[in-house]
Amino acid sequence: MTLIKSISGIRGTIGGPTGDTLNPLDIVKFTTAYATFIRRQGHGKSNKIVVGRDGRISGPMVRQVVCGTLMGMGYDVLDIGYATTPTTELAVRMSGADGGIIITASHNPRQWNALKLLNQEGEFLTAADGSEVLAIAENEDFEYADVEHLGQYVEDHSFDQRHIDSVLQLQLVDREAIRKAGFRVCVDTINSVGGIILPQLFEQLGVEATFLNKDVTGNFAHNPEPLEKNLTGIMDEMRTGKYDLGVVVDPDVDRLAFICEDGKMFGEEYTLVSVADYVLSNTPKADGSAPLSTVSNLSSTRALRDVTEKHGGVYAAAAVGEVNVTTKMKEVGAVIGGEGNGGVIYPASHYGRDALVGIALFLSSLAHKGCKVSELRATFPEYFIAKNRIDLTPDTDVDAILVKVKELYKDQQVNDIDGVKIDFPDKWVHLRKSNTEPIIRVYSEASTMEAADQLGKQIMQVVYDMQ
User: Fold this and answer.
1) Inter-residue contact 65 to 28 (CB < 8 Å)
2) How far apart are CA 165 and CA 463, in angstroms?
3) Is 6 a catalytic residue?
4) Above pLDDT 70, what percent of the chain?
5) Is it the case that residue 1 has pLDDT exceeding 80?
6) What is the mean pLDDT of residues 463-467?
7) Quick check: 12 pLDDT over 90?
8) Range with the largest mean pLDDT of 92-101, 403-412, 425-434
9) 272: which residues sit within 8 A by CB, 6+ positions away?
10) How far apart are CA 76 and CA 150, in angstroms?
């Protein structure tokens, strides 16, 4: 069984029995529930839903089922074709649509696909809204349109350029400085939609780009999650010395990782840190206003907090999940935020992780500093994150375990908005129950990988002793 229903959408492997995997019947049911929810909300006035998809093999099948279902619900469909997640988010706003569906399983392997759901602002549904969609689907509480009120279907492939235009118009994107720097970059777009939009972005920024895995075939050349263990190909290419920067995106282009000119990883956690450093350095604070703020989730590196405070700003932590991060960003008025998985959220553009925005801001920073990527990386605090897990049994009382851990470390700084995070003066550990697997995720960070892993295993032993 791979079908996973959550407040953010539905995902699973393609094929298999109904209710067990991602198949046409379940796609129809979930799309219908979403359309019913949007209708009942009554916020929209266009009667239009945007649909975009990444380059997966199953994309055409899922797209046709989704579009046909929306039309059957009486909604007009604006199909923008191959599109990144941030492009689809922006298309909802730019077109004045009532919502949007992104057909992508993000960093999951080729056999997976998913539906990600957007509201009329082009942002992911809140937890409460997502729960309502799930309830509608579970109860099959919906009704289709009659023949006189079926929706219409329109294709519009202009949104890639409109997305790029919006990036180039950002005040902190210094297009001229980037052009003058004469950057040479190597880019891995993992056989998905990044291979369509990123060549256009780099060309318009005046950057010479060489692409690996550019063709949009859906047959990913390697595991598509942009982690070091999956990126040996581009890292080897970078070691030839022909490039200033390596750029890696995931299949829907909302996660971003950089590689230094010497072939070493910049560090996925440091994508946001570096962009935030540039934004904080170049965003004026109005006289008498509060300090500039940044946000990341509890499992992201402490380096963002350090950089924020260096600039006189204030850092805030959010629960794990993009919608939780954006909610906290709006609450504190953050100028930049995101997640340690390479997700950059820049409100001056929109409230969504956007690799195009991250690339343009990073190149602007690099052009202004006039240094090598490895030299830029050396200017940030050095931390290492270890990722461990505790496998659960049906009898495990996770809530009781977390309460006991919190009590045991009550003399430390403890945050319990999402599991339990314990902040020590020079390190931290975060325990959080997975939403998709019977495990507790144990993330820990310290100044060395050995110290981080030791801390994680120390806390894990505490948990084992409780059982």
Assistant:
1) yes
2) 51
3) no
4) 99
5) no
6) 79
7) yes
8) 92-101
9) 296, 300, 304, 336, 337, 338, 339, 340, 342, 343, 344, 358
10) 8
Nearest 5°: the CA angle 458, 461, 463 is 115
Whose structure tokens read 């880019």?
187
Residue 393 has pLDDT above 70, yes or no: yes
pLDDT at 464: 86
For residues 286 and 354, the model is more confident at: 354
Q: Which of 8, 95, 106, 192 is catalytic?
A: 106
Alpha-carbon distance of 160 to 163, in angstroms, equals: 5
Contact 360, 428 (CB under 8 A): no
pLDDT in tens, 122-132: 999 998 999 99
For 33-97, give the DSSP string. Answer: HHHHHHHHH---SS-EEEEEE-S-TTHHHHHHHHHHHHHHTT-EEEEEEE--HHHHHHHHHHHT-
Where do the H-state alpha helices sit in 106-226? 127-139, 159-168, 175-181, 194-205
Report the residue count for the chain. Answer: 467
| Mean pLDDT, rounded, for 321-342 | 95
Cβ 91 vs Cβ 102: under 8 Å: no
Torsion on CA atoms 345, 88, 94, 72, rounded to nearest 10:
-140
Those residues whose C-beta lies under 8 Å from the C-beta of residue 312, and which sit 6 or more positions away, are 291, 292
Close Cβ partners of 300 (under 8 Å, ≥ 6 residues apart): 269, 272, 339, 340
